[in-house]
Design goal:
By secondary structure, the chain is mainly alpha-helical. The chain is built from 7 helices and no strands.
Length: about 120
C-alpha cells in the first residue's frame, strides 16, 4: 500500500502545484518529514494521513480476502504441515502412504483443525 499511496499523493501534489512548505505548514509536519515522504522514504501512517488530508485525499483500507477465506487457508496450511510430518516419519520407516491415503489424512486433519478454537488455528 505504501508505494501506491505515495505515487497517488505525489501525482496529486504535482497536479495541485502545492509547495512542500505549504504542505508542511498545513499538516503541522516538519518540512524535512514532508520532503522525506515525497522522496519515497517509508513514512508513518500518521504522516501519510496528514499529507493526504492537506491534498484533500482519503486513505482507505480494503481487505484482499474474506476472513473465512483466510481461516480456510490457515486450516489447510496447518493440516498440510501435520500430514507432512507424518509422511516424513512414514517414509523413514519405508511405509509411505499412497496419494489416496494422503488425501484422506489431509481431510481428517482439516476436520480436526477446523474444530479447534480460532486462536489455536492461528497459532
Amino acid at each position: 500500500m505504501q508505494q501506491a499511496t505515495y505515487e497517488l499523493l505525489k501525482a496529486r501534489q504535482r497536479n495541485m502545484q502545492i509547495p512542500y512548505e505549504v504542505i508542511a505548514l498545513q499538516s503541522e509536519l516538519g518540512i524535512a518529514t514532508v520532503k522525506r515522504f515525497f522522496s519515497g522514504a517509508n513514512s508513518s501512517m500518521s504522516t501519510v494521513e496528514k499529507i493526504a488530508s492537506v491534498l484533500a485525499c482519503d486513505i482507505q483500507i480494503y481487505p484482499k480476502y474474506s476472513a473465512e477465506q483466510l481461516l480456510e487457508e490457515q486450516i489447510n496450511k496447518k493440516a498440510k504441515f501435520v500430514v507432512g510430518r507424518v509422511m516424513k516419519t512414514s517414509a523413514l520407516e519405508a511405509q509411505k502412504p499412497n496419494s489416496k491415503a494422503y488425501d484422506l489424512m489431509l481431510q481428517k486433519a482439516k476436520d480436526a483443525i477446523g474444530k479447534m478454537s480460532k486462536s489455536q488455528i492461528w497459532s
